[in-house]
Every structure is written in C-alpha cells, then in structure tokens.
Amino acid sequence: MLIFLLLLICSTASAFEDLTAGKPFVPWLWQDQLKPTIQNSLSTDGLLIIGSTLAGSAAAHHYDSEVYEHNLRGKDLVFDGKTSGFLGTLGGGGVGIGVAAAQLFFDQKNGLRHGRAIMMTSLTHVTSAFLVSRKRPDLRPDYLPFDSAYPSGHASSIFATATSLAYAYGWLAGVPSFALAAAISAARVSENAHWLSDVVAGAGLGIFWGVASYKVNDTEQNDRQAIQLLPPQPTQGGFLLSIKIIPGQIPSNF
C-alpha cells in the first residue's frame, strides 16, 4: 500500500483520471489491483516461471562459494568497485518507482500495471527474505531488521520494472531494460553483496509479478509483447536461463 501511495504522491493528481473511479482506496487496491494480480499469477506461465526460477536458483547455489571466492581475489571482476556501487544505487528501487510514477502521469494503464508489479514484488521479496533469513556473503548490515540476502531485492525490483516496460512498449524498451537489470544483478554479485543464487531468484520473482500484473484486465491484445521464460538449458557446468520476447505491434503511445 505504501508503494501505491508513493506512486500517487509522485504523480500530479490533476493530470489523470481518478484511479479508483470513486471507490474507497483500500477496497479498490485489493479488489481491483492486488487480488486480480494474485489470481493471474497462478497461470501456466506463472508456474513455469516459478519452476524455472527455483531450478535456476538451485543450480546457481552450487556455484555460490566459487563465485564468492573469485570476487574476493579481486581479479577479473565483472565490474570494479565504483561501477558496482553506482549500479547498486541505481537498482535500489527508486528508478522503478520513478518510472511508474511517470507512467501514471502519461500512460495510466501501464503505470498501474507497473505499480502492481513493483508492489507485489516488494511484498513477496520481504516475506521470502524473512522466511529464508540468509546472510549476505560479505556479512554487511541489512536495511531490513533481519538477514535478507535471498532473494535479491535489487534484482527482483529491477526485473519487475524491465518486464513491465517490455510488455508495455515492446522490444525497444525491453532490451535496454533487461540489459540494465542484468548489469545491476551482476554488480550485486560482483561486490559480494549477494550470492549468485540470490539474484537468480530475485530476477525470477520480478519477472513473475511483471507478467502476472500485465494480465490483469488485459483486453487490448494488439499492444501486447509476449514474454516467455524458456526452460533451463544445460551448459558446461551449469544451466542457461533465457527470456524470449516476441515483438508485436508497438503501442501508438510509445
């Protein structure tokens, strides 16, 4: 609820139609936004995403210690410390909230979809992190009052944003958004703020809610960009998770 309130505050109320259509905020939030999103998450696509995420996270877990020790040596890192710190700040959630707020101003339908994805991702991330209570590789203090390494909040939030933008505006927005999401996730591993399996789980969580949120009240199929999470493919020493974006008609408001 706090995220939705923040999105509404960040957007100029007079610039768009009444979001709730006259309904009290809390019933509208549950009945029109969260409940349909949860219902749509229990689809074949959703189950495939969850299954692939769990499989990918389990596979990545076998390399957590190896990746951690590699990063400790400080050689051949994906990003240097300064770049990792910048990407970590960029992926802290502010970018996604800002984009969603701008969408509520200029593109209300997709702004609501994006906002739902961010909210559900945040709620399930905090819940999952509390249940798992995994320590971070570098044992740094958490911003939450408990150990919250798994799943990665940075990865989950930025992948929720990337998925939402890909669905809303097609590959022209999806490709750079997913590239940025991958870079932020890699940076979190590179600086040993997260285990490799943390960011794999976080990415899957964000994609899961981005897909589920887009399907709520989805009656305009012409502007839809299909996103498919392909089954894990075995590679030498691990698994490869791939996302397939099928371009359709780019919306006229892109």
Which tags fit this structure?
mainly alpha; disordered C terminus; 254 residues
Structural class comes to mainly alpha
Largest sheet strand order: 1-2
Summarize the amount of helix as a percent range.
55-70%
Instruction: Please work out how many helical segments DSSP would assign.
Output: 10
Largest sheet: 2 strands, antiparallel
Low-confidence stretches: 9-16, 219-226, 248-254
What string, H for helix and E for strand, traces the elements in order?
Answer: HHHHHHHHHHEE
Strand-residue proportion: 5-15%
Distance between the termini: 28 Å
Average pLDDT, all residues: 84
Total strand count, please?
2
- Using only C-alpha atoms, the radius of gyration works out to 18 Å
Descriptive report:
With 254 residues, the protein is mainly alpha-helical. Helix content is 62%, strand content 7%. The protein has helices at residues 2-10, 25-41, 44-61, 64-73, 81-90, 94-106, 108-132, 153-169, 171-190, 196-214, and strands at residues 226-235, 238-246. It has a two-stranded antiparallel sheet. Strand 1 (226-235) and strand 2 (238-246) form a beta hairpin. Helix 2 (25-41) crosses helix 10 and helix 6 runs antiparallel to helix 7.
